[in-house]
Amino acid sequence: MIQINKEQFAASLVGWRKGEGMTQKELAELVQSSQSALCEIEKAISLPAASTILGFYAYTEFDILDALLQAMVEKDEKGRDEKGRETQLRASPKV
Known about the structure:
The chain is mostly helical. The chain is about 50% helix and about 5% strand.
């Protein structure tokens, strides 16, 4: 099972945004998202919607795909990572 470490992804995004000297509002407008959605992403509450990912890809230099890949965590069926640590990340819904 693969999940995204929201905290790691959020840290990458916040670091990039601040390095670019952008506010959340400016970035949200650029990627055509709401400031509240961007705030939730940066607080590691949620992950970006597909439309937001496309906005980052199309309108910024932030390598969102690489950041998501770097934040991927593989879990076993009990939600433990490769070192046997339990995490607080929720499992993906089964389809």
